[in-house]
Amino acid sequence: KYRSLTESEIKALIVDDKWLATINEAIQSEVDRLSQTITGRIRQLAERYATPLPKQLDDLTAAEQKVNAHLKQMGFIWN
Fold this sequence. Notes:
- The protein is mostly helical.
- It has helices at residues 7-48, 53-73.
- Helix content is 80%, strand content 0%.
- It is rod-shaped and about 100 Å long.
């Protein structure tokens, strides 16, 4: 049957049906991978910056006060 095909039919079979489909699938896979990577990075950044700086500073001050109180109870003296 291949011998009965014209040159344009052969090109259509090989290029359009085989190569372009493979290239299209590879491109779509890469786009999907990149989309997932970007989505993951955005989630990571959203989690990192979810707590505003003033809240973090308040938490830090409270933790610092607790540590200083514990050190003072243990007899540690500093200037």
